[in-house]
Amino acid sequence: MREDHRELKKDLRYPHTRPAEIRHDLKEIRHDFRKLRRDCRELHRDFQELQRDKRSFRRYGRKIN
Q1: What are the helix (H) ranges across the chain?
Q2: Which parts of the chain are coiled coil (predicted)?
Q3: How remote is the C-alpha of 29 from its chain's centroid?
């Protein structure tokens, strides 16, 4: 168990010694994570825009552009 842990730490410390499939998986995970963050930012922006529209609608009784 301890040796496995040591090996894992070594793998994490020296990424170029990792097996290629692990490097590939990590790359995919990072890519997916960045995509998710980008999507979340866009959703948040849309949500804020809707909130703004809702406030102006409530204030003036209709949407003003």
Answers
A1: 2-13, 20-60
A2: 26-53
A3: 10
Q: Which of 4, 24, 28 is nearest to 15 (CA)?
A: 24
Q: What is the pLDDT of residues 3-60, one digit of tens each?
A: 777 777 776 666 666 688 888 888 999 999 999 999 999 999 999 999 988 888 777 7
pTM of the model: 0.52
In the chain, where the domains are located: 20-65
Tell me the C-alpha to C-alpha distance, in Å, between residue 24 and each of 7, 34, 37, 44: 19, 15, 20, 30
**What is the C-alpha separation between 12 and 57, in angstroms, rounded?**
53
| Residue 26 tokens, joined | 């990590």
Q: Note the Cα 51 to chain centre separation in Å.
A: 23
Neighbours of 4 (CB within 10 A): 8
